[in-house]
């Protein structure tokens, strides 16, 4: 499930980038994507196990909060992607495990010198990806990094509070929370929309069904069985695949500085994942799961 989710997620960045380059509005694209995905999640539960719609109030609030957080992240991600190439965006998304590890400091994890080294490696990588001369849109970079923070916060909430729930329930309520925030935003800015055409709709449906509905269902199921840290071990594969798709199908080109920067970010990611594996396994986490 984790591998399937990783492959499905890797398709999202190049497909979304191709739609945005074609003139699609970011907020409208995200909203339609989530309408389709949320409807599929609801339909899947309704046809197989309607009882899964029932949820304790506390769990429901956390699931919706995770969804709202992720929805903000997805809006920022699409806005940033409209300003950056898919391959560079994918490299920046690789910082997620490092940010997850940083968030653990808020829950009592000790801040070590090794973590400072990981942060330095990641920031050096971001500097090279942006370009010493500022060749990459810095606003786009900032939007993507903020989206990574939102995505990472969602993963931490899932690990801490929702791991015991059925993945279908989590997927539906998180998706509903995402749809709520992006739908309100789209409504607030006047529902802008650009006709997509047949190819565009194929891409959007692929985003909604494969890279959202199926990918998130598989991801939440994987987190339930193996935890967020094990799931995050596949982040480098997701980034590598996303870069390959971007270069192969979008014709994007990477400079030596981009490659070096991406390598530094991935090294930092691998070191963060190694630390996460130790952190999640500590006995006190099991106590927090039950609280």
Written account of the structure:
With 291 residues, the chain is an all-alpha fold. The protein has one domain. It has helices at residues 2-21, 26-48, 57-81, 86-93, 96-103, 113-130, 138-162, 167-188, 197-232, 235-250, 256-280, 283-290. It is globular.
Quickly describe the structure:
Helix content is 80%, strand content 0%. It is mainly alpha-helical. The chain has one domain (2-290).
Tally of individual helices: 12
Oligomer: single chain
Question: What is the typical, i.e. mean, pLDDT?
Answer: 83
Distance between the termini: 28 Å
Low-confidence stretches: 282-291
Shape: globular
What's the domain count?
Answer: 1
Write the layout of secondary structure elements.
Elements: H1 2-21, H2 26-48, H3 57-81, H4 86-93, H5 96-103, H6 113-130, H7 138-162, H8 167-188, H9 197-232, H10 235-250, H11 256-280, H12 283-290
Helix pairs in contact: 1-4, 1-9, 1-10, 2-8, 2-9, 3-7, 3-8, 4-10, 5-7, 5-11, 6-11, 7-9, 7-12, 8-9, 9-11
Could you name the key traits of this structure?
291 residues; mainly alpha; 12 helices; disordered C terminus
